């Protein structure tokens, strides 16, 4: 999966979000940088113009031939703006240059250079901090639109999919869950947001999976699981009111910063009796290929795959098919219509 330079030998297909990440992250910063630079140059252009007129008395409106101005070749506001631009960017004065006749002009030039240096430090620091923000990196982690419940190794399991959409690694990935629901204590007190831990594991139960390819995390619904009662309730045909909050914590490899990604699933976003189809295959060149067009698709055991649709419609279709004697392995299709709650 990796080469000698710690790069990922992974190819991803049908991934449309990657191209806009860097533009979206830095567009506002570029606008702010341009506005701040031009605004500072314009302000100092006004100060240079004011300095020129304040150092000109009535005789110097028609200066003698031996008169030396504070700034050479600066008679208009446009020339003052160009002088401010050339001073701030240190690109060379040309015919416009400061003279030693005006101490105030020398102080103004030093002040402009100091403010310019501080502004460049601030902009550079802001740009680097914006690139390294864990929040922006967390936006490149994708959760499946739905969670599914199916049998895994003889036990009912709740499954979700997680994918890292960049080739830079996330270290120490840990996925945990919180079951949020209203409960009633033995004393008769109503707890509006009762939180129960829902542990997730992957494959070999590793605490730090290698998230270079899309992985399926699962939670075993056994007698100790907080989802056990909900599982029995839904199997009996009753409705349940809860929200499953899923949290993934990881360390960003280039910056060693910690990021956390969160999403949640409502009862109608958990599909019971369905499973995820494979998204990873091996190409002829020996590379692992992740096809993201299958990332949010599910199947109900028949081997065919389709897009997810409204769970209520699914239940009605299943009931109709049972009445009509249709096969259980048939695939459902339709547009995505279920809201995903990101927190």
Automatic annotation (TrEMBL):
GO MF entry, a single one: inward rectifier potassium channel activity
Gene Ontology CC terms, in alphabetical order: monoatomic ion channel complex; plasma membrane
Keywords for the protein's UniProt record, in alphabetical order: Ion channel, Ion transport, Membrane, Potassium, Potassium transport, Transmembrane, Transmembrane helix, Transport, Voltage-gated channel
Domain Potassium channel inwardly rectifying transmembrane: 61-134
Catalyzed reactions per annotation: K(+)(in) = K(+)(out)
Transmembrane segments: 104-129
Gene Ontology terms: biological process: nervous system development; potassium ion import across plasma membrane; regulation of monoatomic ion transmembrane transport
One Pfam family, short name: IRK
Topology with respect to the bilayer: Multi-pass membrane protein
Inward rectifier potassium channel C-terminal domain location: 141-299
Cellular compartments annotated: Membrane
InterPro entries noted in UniProt: Ig_E-set, IRK_C, K_chnl_inward-rec_Kir, K_chnl_inward-rec_Kir1.1, K_chnl_inward-rec_Kir_cyto, Kir_TM
Alphabetized PANTHER family for the sequence: ATP-SENSITIVE INWARD RECTIFIER POTASSIUM CHANNEL 10, INWARD RECTIFIER POTASSIUM CHANNEL
Family: Belongs to the inward rectifier-type potassium channel (TC 1.A.2.1) family.
Protein name in the entry: Potassium inwardly rectifying channel subfamily J member 10
């Amino acid at each position: 999966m990796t080469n000698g330079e710690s790069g990922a030998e992974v190819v991803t297909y049908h991934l449309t979000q990657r191209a806009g990440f860097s533009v979206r992250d830095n567009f506002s910063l570029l606008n702010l940088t341009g506005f701040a630079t031009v605004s500072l140059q314009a302000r100092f252009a006004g100060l240079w113009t004011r300095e020129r007129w304040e150092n000109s008395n009535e005789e110097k409106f028609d200066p003698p031939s031996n008169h030396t101005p504070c700034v050479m070749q600066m008679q208009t506001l446009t020339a003052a703006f160009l002088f401010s631009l050339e001073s701030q960017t240190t690109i060379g004065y040309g015919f416009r240059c400061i003279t030693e006749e005006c101490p105030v002009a020398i102080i103004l030039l030093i002040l402009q250079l100091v403010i310019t240096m501080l502004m460049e430090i601030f902009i550079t620091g802001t740009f680097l901090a914006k690139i390294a923000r864990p929040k922006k990196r967390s936006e490149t982690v994708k959760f499946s639109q739905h969670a599914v419940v199916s049998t895994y190794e003889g036990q009912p399991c709740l499954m979700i999919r997680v994918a890292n959409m960049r080739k830079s690694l996330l270290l120490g990935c840990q996925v945990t869950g919180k079951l949020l629901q209203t409960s009633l204590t033995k004393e008769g007190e109503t707890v509006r947001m009762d939180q129960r831990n829902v542990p997730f594991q992957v494959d070999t139960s590793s605490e730090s999976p290698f998230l270079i390819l899309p992985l399926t995390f699962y939670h075993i619904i056994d007698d100790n699981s907080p989802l056990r009662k909900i599982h029995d309730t839904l199997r009996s045909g009753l409705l349940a009111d809860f929200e499953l909050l899923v949290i993934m914590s990881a360390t960003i490899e280039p910056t060693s910063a910690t990021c956390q990604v969160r999403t949640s699933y409502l009862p109608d976003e958990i599909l019971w009796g369905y499973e995820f189809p494979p998204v990873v295959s091996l190409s002829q060149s020996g590379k692992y290929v992740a096809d993201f067009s299958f990332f949010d698709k599910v199947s109900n055991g028949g081997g065919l795959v389709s897009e997810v649709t409204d769970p209520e419609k699914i239940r009605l279709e299943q009931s109709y098919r049972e009445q009509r004697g249709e096969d259980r392995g048939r695939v459902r299709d339709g547009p995505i219509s279920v809201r995903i709650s990101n927190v």
